[in-house]
């Protein structure tokens, strides 16, 4: 195209395609891609050849073979007779669980500490300051060990317990609580909950519109509470209470081995999970706190003054003026903290929590299929990271400044 | 930039291609002057660093014996401590030359990991250890127990088989590092610690109060432990296998580190062949003919190594049992040197 145009414009002779920047550009792109493809091809064939030469079996067929080992925590049914593929899936779900709960806790702690750091109350801001400085500067693995080994020894042994309201019980075997048992009719409650959440969004939009138009406020918070909690509770009562609680069973008589909590009754958060999730949340929260502080400080003080001048008090100023503007600064670095937390969860292996890396490593060791397992690890972590980034980018765009 | 990229990549690719044809392990080892030996991260009696950082144990002795056979020098070994999970990858990738780390010979490991077992230097079986105050006397009473062990071992597979076969529910807590298993068991996280019986005796020494724990009588598996090399290098495999055989044959023939010098002038043809006075057995495996004499002189025969590291007079206090010579009622039986 450009060559022809230049020609017709009577530009310097058609002479060399070679000197056309566009053609050259394309050529180099093409070259680069071919080299990459060739390199990739070479690496793959070379690896396969090497594995064959060393008599190491390869391929993904092993995923269907029986795993034969037990896993302490499985969110979906798993037994020793399940396949290696299933075992890896269990590990993946465990990673996901730690990541989601860890991110949730870290965000809450991080925001609280970040805001506390800016508090006018000297003691509060000092506590926040020392929290950040201390936690940030101690290696994460050490913190995980601390939560696991040091705290583990401080809680009661398997045959004793600490109880809260006679409902939650803590001992060295984990944190136990009642498990909801869903009987027929319970699904209705779930649907009512979903409906309540959707209705809340609708009400919120409507209330916002009304406020924009008329200036009248609507008690969205209380309405939401009613819709999300009140309605399902009502449904629960109407349906004749189809959800019952299965309480953990604690034996303190009988043979000593049988004393303590019965396996598989009630919900048990194993100490490996607790230690890992707490350590990750507390560690990441220190970084999030700094991000939140920086984000808030990035909003010029004039905004606070203007808001005060309009008669808004501290709390609504923070909620309506500062935080929305600060979010734009906070979200991008917050995303990378979420990614960090997810990837750091692979330290699970140190304290026997069966996450993707831990279970994958076991499979790797039992089958010897290193290349395949490492490929699975990379693909899973990459997808998790990309999904988190995509979500956060979407959220960031929503929060971005809408210019008029 | 792009101008330099292509040659770089091609160079790298060709470089990789060129290195795939390499010399034999024995030549490599001779050239670098030492053996890189994969051991455990600390299992008393088998492979364990002492206060000065010197490695000792029967698995360590095996590597020292190989060094003695090749270099006439038991210090020509470097040790790489490996967790159960890391060990095979380390051997496959060439990071170590031989793996001598209480490793069970199983069919999968022998046939699909690209590895070969050179023999058995300790016949073991899996056992259980519990706190005495549990009042348990048999493994069959362990229903509902939580069990601590290492990942990436035959142990975690056997324990799953055993509890399932006996219809006993259980909870498995599997750590990568042995020290973490010990710490968790010691803290009371688990009721039971399971691993190779020898390992139980060794790890018990690390507990706060070793006397509070007992090893249950049941042995639930066969764990023939032995040294491993990469598949496809027969010469190196022979050096490993015959190093072990030499130590066992020496015990059988009554040759020890103390009498090896005087045995040089013996009339016994078997001993003559072992010590290289007759024949060219050493040369046939790429070594010198006094290869076995060197092993016996510097490291000793199998009995000496066993007694010094795990035997009745050591903290582990293990009797020979099945690990006695076949002629003494055990199963230790080495092919003859002839
Ligand atoms: N023989 C079994 C188990 C070997 C194993 O790893 N045992 C543990 C417990 S005795 C161990 O060696 N620990 C010492 C360490 O990891 O340094 C196998 O080959 O899978």
Keywords:
heterodimer, A: 404 residues, alpha+beta, MetI-like fold, four-stranded antiparallel β-sheet, two-stranded antiparallel ribbon, 8 strands, globular, disordered N terminus, B: 338 residues, alpha/beta, D-Maltodextrin-Binding Protein, domain 2, 2 domains, three-stranded parallel β-sheet, 14 helices, 39% helix, 16% strand, binds glutathione
Report the helical percentage of chain A. 55-70%
CA-CA gap between termini of chain B: 65 Å
Q: On the 0-100 scale, what is the average pLDDT of chain B?
A: 88
Give the C-alpha Rg of chain B: 22 Å
Number of strands of chain A: 8
- Estimate the mean pLDDT confidence of chain A: 84
Describe the overall structure:
The complex is a heterodimer of chains A (404) and B (338). With 404 residues, chain A is of the alpha+beta class. Among the domains of chain A are: 2-51; 84-131 and 273-399, MetI-like (MetI-like fold, Orthogonal Bundle), CATH 1.10.3720.10. Chain A has helices spanning 2-8, 21-53, 84-117, 122-136, 140-154, 186-214, 220-238, 271-298, 301-309, 314-344, 356-367, 370-399; strands at residues 162-164, 168-171, 174-177, 179-182, 243-246, 250-251, 260-261, 267-269. In chain A, the strands form 3 sheets. Chain A has a 4-stranded antiparallel β-sheet. The model of chain A is unreliable at 1-10 (pLDDT under 50). Chain B folds into 2 domains: 23-123 and 225-254 and 302-328, 3-Layer(aba) Sandwich (D-Maltodextrin-Binding Protein, domain 2), CATH 3.40.190.10; 126-221, 3-Layer(aba) Sandwich (D-Maltodextrin-Binding Protein, domain 2), CATH 3.40.190.10. The longest helix of chain B is centred in the C-terminal third of the chain and has 20 residues, at 234-253. Chain B is globular and about 60 Å long. Mean pLDDT of chain B is 88; it is low at 1-21. At the A-B interface, helix 2, helix 5 and helix 11 of A face helix 1, helix 4, helix 5, helix 6 and strand 10 of B. Glutathione (GSH) is lined by residues 40-43, 83-84, 102-104, 150, 153-155, 178, 195-196, 199, 203, 223, 225 of chain B.
